[in-house]
Amino acid sequence: MAATDDREFDEIDHEADDLDVEDSGAPAPPQAPPPAPGTPAVIADDVHVKYRVFGGRQSTAGEMGRLRRLVNRSRAHVGAVTEVHAVRGVSFVARHGESVGLIGMNGAGKSTLLRAVAGLMPISEGRVFVDGTTALLGVNAALVPALTGARNVMIGGLALGLTPDQVRERFDDIVEFAGIGDFINLPMKAYSSGMAARLRFAISTAAIPDILMIDEALATGDAAFRNRSRAKIEEIREHAGTVFLVSHSTQSIERMCDRAIWLDQGRMLADGPAREVVAEYRKALQKKS
Ligand SMILES: Nc1ncnc2c1ncn2[C@@H]1O[C@H](COP(=O)(O)OP(=O)(O)OP(=O)(O)O)[C@@H](O)[C@H]1O
């Protein structure tokens, strides 16, 4: 049994060492000058996002219903189509150097809005303008669970536009930032959700994106990780980057954001200084409970 385990670990280690992605020889792309703080980074203009959900219950009943499903077999498996209007006419301007928190109850549309701004969700009405590169950090970051953390560092780094050499240079910093130690040599599917979120955060911030979007990842870390994250967010803002943070922790929003947007059932209820919006939101929560 032990021998088998050792062999499995050897194989994984071998894979982790294999960071030998060939450099194309091309020089790293020239860095554009940082944008001026205060200029618009994201403009959302009357944004609507709708999900189409397939597979709802058929409204037909009995023999006729069964017959109809049989006849329309190619369509029968999808059932009824329901539309979920997740974001309803949201408009805002976020500026370079700003840190914007998104708050609201479960299902308010926070993650959907973030994904739409990152270009990962089609919007059904309205417009989004983005100035710069976006890095969305959240449950759906495009890493490969079957591969080791080390391989994912390379994949994520390349996806962010780093060269293989740049990823190798930053590799140790990324692993240290994530605080996952030797787990970096194990497949990500063996990580706890917190470990995976920390590694995604460390990868996403390795390239100092212009716009960083964080979806609840900070909630998963311990105090030391949260401090490192806060320092990283400050660093990004100093480079005139814009940070969006979705969190149910109103304390995190107050600590890390100067502005907050409150969403409720897809609509924007408030947009203003983080402390004021959070205070209003807490009052509303107290009334509900
Ligand atoms: N993939 C999906 N397919 C269909 N509906 C979805 C999908 N993802 C989210 N929704 C719906 O869209 C609405 C907004 O969801 P969203 O996840 O954006 O809210 P949220 O504010 O981020 O919620 P939470 O705080 O619970 O994470 C909800 O009604 C949700 O059920």
From TrEMBL:
Q: Which GO terms describe its molecular function?
A: ABC-type transporter activity; ATP binding; ATP hydrolysis activity
Matches recorded under PROSITE patterns: ABC_TRANSPORTER_1, ABC_TRANSPORTER_2
Compositional bias per record (Acidic residues), positions renumbered to this chain: 7-23
Superkingdom of source? Bacteria
The answer, when asked if ATP-binding is one of the entry's keywords, is yes
Gene3D superfamilies reported in the protein's UniProt record: P-loop containing nucleotide triphosphate hydrolases
- Region ranges (Disordered): 1-40
| Residue ranges, compositional bias (Pro residues) | 27-38
Q: One cellular component GO annotation, for this chain's record?
A: membrane
Q: What's a Pfam family this protein contains?
A: ABC_tran
Query: Which InterPro entries does this one have?
Result: AAA+_ATPase (IPR003593), ABC_transporter-like_ATP-bd (IPR003439), ABC_transporter-like_CS (IPR017871), ABC_transpr_TagH-like (IPR015860), Bact_Polysacc_Export_ATP-bd (IPR050683), P-loop_NTPase (IPR027417)
The record, for SUPFAM superfamilies, names: P-loop containing nucleoside triphosphate hydrolases (SSF52540)
Give the record's keywords alphabetically: ATP-binding, Nucleotide-binding, Transport
The ABC transporter domain covers 68-287
Q: Which family does it belong to?
A: Belongs to the ABC transporter superfamily.
Looking up PANTHER family in the UniProt record yields: TEICHOIC ACIDS EXPORT ATP-BINDING PROTEIN TAGH
In Swiss-Prot or TrEMBL terms, this protein is called: Teichoic acid transport system ATP-binding protein
Tell me the organism: Ruania alba
